[in-house]
Amino acid sequence: MEHSDFKTATEQRLAEIWADVMRLDKDKVKRDQDFFDVGGDSLLATKVVLRVRRDWDIKITVRVLNDAPVLAELAERIDQRVAKSARPTASSPAVATRASRPGACLWEMRPGAGGPGQGTLLVLPHAGGSAQNYGPWADWLPGGLRILAAQYPARASRADEPVAADLHRIVDEVLEALGDLDGPLYVFGHSMGSYVGYELCWREQSAGRAPAVLFASGAVPPHRHRPNPATEEEITDEWLLGILGMYEGVSDDLRNHPEVMSQALRTLRGDVKLFRNYAYGDALRRLDIPIVVFGGENDDLVPPAEAERWSDLGTAGCVTRLMPGGHFFYLDNMATVTDAMSTYLVSGHDGQRA
């Protein structure tokens, strides 16, 4: 990472923080990059903010990063805060709120070849997760495949929007953004995303446009869904921290900044309420497409016996793959998961299975 790539020492230091927190190649971090377009998400944003607070000794919130996600813009905001802290009477420039972009509910992780019949993989994140959580998948899946990830409200570039109140509203939004696809659609969802995926597949099947495969990961099948925590129980911060801990841990730095922690938990709490209120219905609805199920051998939220029950929901065969690990088992088994998925995926170049 050369100094010539950046105009100020603040940009240089901020680039080093981005590379460290998001595990990026230092030489590829540029001053015009958008935090959320290179893999940033709500949890990683809190880590960057905590590092900025510590290195520059200023007060800054995740909202500032949401409003100024480009590295050079954020560096300028940092310099403004530093100047203000040195001159308490100085006034700061007005900060404009970053508006949501049209079609922001889908993030194109990797464009496809663009040919006729090109396959599209749709990735649906877990509760509290963002599209960028799955960014590394683009390097593991077959070339020629277009990869899209859903960006739910209240995170990343949509941070100013309220959490969705109904899981079916997420399905509506994603289907509208997808439009009419020429080639096959493959759907992957983890945890809550599996339910979004199932309902989306059911809607498309009912409309005569059934996707090619549903990959359901880390989820009790929808018809076996039970509210967790129970409907009458409070969703406490302690319970939410336990969920966060399953994903990538909760650092002491984060715990020591309650206002930042509160922001990080807000989105997860909204998603948990959304997921808890989901109702499958009384009639069993079966998909006429293959269902491939992934699960963790030590997942306390989804016992292996429950993962096997996805077979109730399909008429075209259901395969279950259990792997070492807990609820976020795929983090340590990415090669295995993407390898298994690849056997079902069609390359956009030649129409053959990858």
The helix content is: 25-40%
Biggest sheet descriptor:
7 strands, mixed
Number of helices, counting only DSSP H or I runs of 4 residues or more = 11
The number of E-state strands comes to 7
**Beta-strand level of the residues, as a percent range?**
5-15%
General description of the model:
Residues 87-102 and 347-354 have low confidence and may be disordered. Helix 10 links the parallel strand 6 and strand 7 (318-323). Strands 1-3-2-4-5-6-7 form a seven-stranded mixed beta sheet. With 354 residues, it is α/β, with parallel strands linked by helices. It is globular, with a radius of gyration of 21 Å. Helix 1 packs across helix 2 (42-56), helix 1 crosses helix 4 (71-86) and helix 5 (167-178) crosses helix 6 (192-206). It is 35% helix and 11% strand. The protein has eleven helices and seven strands.
Brief digest:
This protein has helices at 9-22, 42-56, 62-67, 71-86, 167-178, 192-206, 237-247, 252-255, 258-276, 304-307, 334-342; strands at 106-110, 120-124, 146-150, 185-190, 213-217, 291-296, 318-323.
Describe the secondary-structure layout.
Elements: H1 9-22, H2 42-56, H3 62-67, H4 71-86, E1 106-110, E2 120-124, E3 146-150, H5 167-178, E4 185-190, H6 192-206, E5 213-217, H7 237-247, H8 252-255, H9 258-276, E6 291-296, H10 304-307, E7 318-323, H11 334-342
Parallel strand pairs: 2-3, 2-4, 4-5, 5-6, 6-7
Antiparallel strand pairs: 1-3
Helix pairs in contact: 1-2, 1-4, 5-6
